[in-house]
């Protein structure tokens, strides 16, 4: 999945907008960004996601290269999900690596790539949200589990198997033998 890098007006005060004005445009120049920001809406999948407003701990490095700014690092957060086997809610942690190039306007990369293929700086600003969104969504499990050995639900009664006794069963007699079952109970 490629990030949607369609340009939009960026607000420099937005938590997921990075300002590169203090990063020299000399290749090799670098600066770190360590900040905690609130998670945007819809950051996840159907069964698991990062809750809206949850803390995203950004530990990033912005590095000048000849074509633009390379952003790399990790994002740490909590996730909230529903187990794909037992349907119980659970919380977990998530660590996601980010590696994304944002090119300068009128650079060779800017002129030779489609608009949605690569991130672009808008002046001195970088919109980190599309790259962050793709990294998080791709890192989340499609079928999340509350724990690796979750046994799931009883297929007959729907109760979580780990809440049932070891001898739990739903013995279903063959209807063809029902007459013999009645005979046995009448003898007792």
Structural write-up:
The protein is an alpha+beta fold and 188 residues long. The chain has 3 helices and 9 strands. The protein has helices at residues 108-112, 129-139, 178-187, and strands spanning 17-19, 30-38, 43-44, 48-50, 55-65, 68-82, 89-103, 119-120, 125-127. The strands form 2 sheets. Strands 2, 3, 4, 5, 6, 7 and 8 form a 7-stranded mixed β-sheet that branches. Strands 1-9 form a two-stranded antiparallel sheet. β3 (43-44) and β4 (48-50) form a beta hairpin. The protein starts with 16 loop residues before the first strand and ends with a helix. The mean pLDDT is 86.
Structural class: alpha+beta
Shape: elongated
Mean pLDDT, all residues: 86
* Number of β-strand runs: 9
What is the radius of gyration computed over CA atoms, rounded to a whole number of angstroms? 26 Å
Summed up, the helix count is 3
Terminal-residue CA separation: 68 Å
A few lines on this structure:
This protein is an alpha+beta fold and 188 residues long. It has three helices and nine strands. It has helices at residues 108-112, 129-139, 178-187, and strands spanning 17-19, 30-38, 43-44, 48-50, 55-65, 68-82, 89-103, 119-120, 125-127.
What's the layout of helices and strands?
Layout: E1 17-19, E2 30-38, E3 43-44, E4 48-50, E5 55-65, E6 68-82, E7 89-103, H1 108-112, E8 119-120, E9 125-127, H2 129-139, H3 178-187
Parallel strand pairs: 7-8
Antiparallel strand pairs: 1-9, 2-5, 3-4, 4-6, 5-6, 6-7
């Amino acid at each position: 999945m490629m990030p949607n890098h369609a340009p939009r007006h960026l607000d420099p005060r937005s938590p997921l907008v990075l300002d590169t004005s203090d990063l020299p445009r000399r290749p090799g120049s670098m600066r770190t960004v360590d900040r905690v920001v609130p998670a945007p809406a819809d950051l996840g999948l159907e069964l698991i996601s990062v809750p809206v407003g949850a803390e995203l701990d950004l530990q990033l490095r912005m590095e000048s290269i000849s074509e633009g700014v390379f952003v790399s690092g990790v994002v740490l957060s909590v996730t909230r999900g529903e187990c794909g086997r037992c349907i119980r809610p659970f919380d977990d942690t998530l660590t996601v690596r980010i590696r994304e190039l944002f090119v300068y306007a009128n650079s060779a990369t800017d002129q030779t790539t489609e608009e949605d293929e690569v991130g672009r700086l808008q002046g001195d600003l970088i919109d980190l949200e599309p790259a962050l969104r793709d990294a998080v969504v791709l890192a989340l499990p499609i079928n999340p589990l509350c724990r690796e050995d979750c046994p799931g639900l009883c297929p007959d009664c729907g109760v979580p198997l780990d809440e049932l006794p070891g001898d739990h069963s739903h013995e279903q007699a063959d209807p063809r033998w029902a007459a013999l079952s009645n005979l046995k109970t009448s003898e007792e």
